[in-house]
Amino acid sequence: MVSARVLLLLAASCCLGSDAAASEAALNPIRKVVNLLQSMQKKVEAEGEKEKELYEKFLCYCKTGNGDLSASISAATDKVPQVSSNIEASEGKLAQTKEDLKAAQEDRTSAKNAMKEAIALREKEAAAFAAEKAEADTNIAALDKAISALEKGMTGGFLQTSTAQVLRKLATNDQDSLIDADRQMLLSFLSGETDYAPQSGQIVGILKEMHETMAKGLADATAVEEASIKSHEELMSAKSKEVAALSASIESKQTSIGELGVEIVQMKEDLDDTQAALLADQKYLAELEKGCATKTAEWEERSK
């Protein structure tokens, strides 16, 4: 901006320059003044251009900064609710996974307990069958010997054997395979109270009937035992697979719980950082808009 003082000096120089008749010695000092004034004018104009250039750069910064900050604020404003929603979803998933883990652990414990109970029951059943089979084998063997001896006519000698004692006990205790009449007849024979005619075959018939009944009972008990063993093996196989699957599920859920816990912590930190950055950007944007507005007003005032 050219001041009034400079303009007056320029006007004076023009008037002085019109006196062509003045001597060169007299013009030299004036020429120096003119040159000085012209130099000052160029300097003022250069300073004005420089100031204008700086203002335009500042104005560009205002526009660019405003745009960048607005974009950052907009992105953060959108991100905050999204991250909050993700945290809520992950916390819900974490709670559900913990419940599922607890259920899986309880199911595995129940499966293991069922296996223990099944083993205990199987051992009890096996012991009972072993005792039943041992008794049945003894009784059947005694019947085999008795039948063979009686069929050979060895009545007197047979009654003095341990086999006869076994049959006497069997006839007394067995309430299922003998009718009372046959039991009384057999007990009378074994005690030697009656004469027995081997050719009649009555006692041998009773013993063979007892043998058949006991053999069938042992066969039935053996079939039940075999079915029980098979059922036990199937149960143990199924429960073993169940325990293995539950163990794998438990391990997977424990891993998921750890990962979700870390993920939630990271998201919460990200949310805190985003919220802090959002507040800082909003504050800086307000200050920038205020500063730019002030600078623009000052420039417009100087440019009038």
Taking all residues together, what is the mean pLDDT?
A: 82
Which stretches are low in confidence, meaning pLDDT under 50 for 5 or more residues running?
1-26
Portion in strands: under 5%
Q: What's the SSE pattern?
A: HHHHHH
Structural class: mainly alpha
Number of strands: 0
Q: Give the CA-CA distance, first to last residue.
A: 10 Å
Helix percentage range: over 70%
- Alpha carbon gyration radius: 59 Å
Number of helices: 6
Spatial shape: rod-shaped
Most strands sheet: none
Description:
The protein is mostly helical and 304 residues long. The protein is built from six helices and no strands.
Give a topology summary.
Elements: H1 4-17, H2 24-151, H3 155-158, H4 162-173, H5 180-190, H6 202-303
Helix pairs in contact: 1-2, 2-4, 2-6, 4-5
Give a concise summary.
With 304 residues, the protein is an all-alpha fold. 89% of the residues lie in helices and 0% in strands.
Question: Main traits of this protein?
Answer:
304 residues; mainly alpha; single chain
